[in-house]
Design a protein that fits this description.
With 151 residues, the protein is mainly beta. Helices cover 7% and strands 42% of the residues. The longest helix has 10 residues, at 6-15. Mean pLDDT is 82; it is low at 13-26.
Length: 151
């Protein structure tokens, strides 16, 4: 569940410059969830489609057997709940880190994890409403969610 293509991380690191800044946190407490966001939807028919803030459906008709959804989670959640039209979706999770420049990138030894990049495969599913939610592991115990209709 922790594998990811380094090219994808590098591309998202450049894309996400400014999405979050460098954060400070003590070693004793992980930052609560502050953001969950669908970043991109990928399919053979459309390639990568960037998802804008407040966008509630894809512009491109992705329907097909090999759709992938990329989700950014900033902060630390307990256990994500992910589904397409209520059916569980599997994926991978990779930690992302912020450096002094504020860019997100794949974490290496000694770097602080500020969130996760998830990649969900909709293999065998054609279209529908994708949902992602998670609850912070610490105070304030907030739940954050996002959804997107994928056509």
């Amino acid at each position: 569940m922790y594998c990811i293509n380094k090219r994808v991380i590098a591309a998202f690191g450049l894309l996400l410059t400014g999405v979050i800044g460098a954060q400070t946190a003590s070693a004793a407490m992980a930052p609560p969830l502050s953001q969950v966001k669908v970043l991109k939807v990928e399919s053979p028919s459309c390639g990568f489609e960037d998802i804008a803030a407040a966008q509630d459906r894809t512009r491109c008709n992705h329907s097909g057997p090999n759709i992938k959804v990329y989700v950014l989670e900033v902060g630390y959640g307990r256990e994500p709940h992910v589904a397409l039209d209520g059916f569980k979706v599997d994926g991978t999770r990779t930690p992302v880190c912020a450096f002094d420049t504020g860019n997100l990138t794949e974490c290496s030894a000694g770097k602080k994890t500020v969130g996760y990049l998830y990649i969900f495969s909709l293999t065998g599913k054609q279209d529908g409403t994708f949902t992602f939610s998670n609850t912070s592991i610490n105070a304030p115990g907030n739940t954050m969610s996002t959804q997107l209709y994928i056509k």
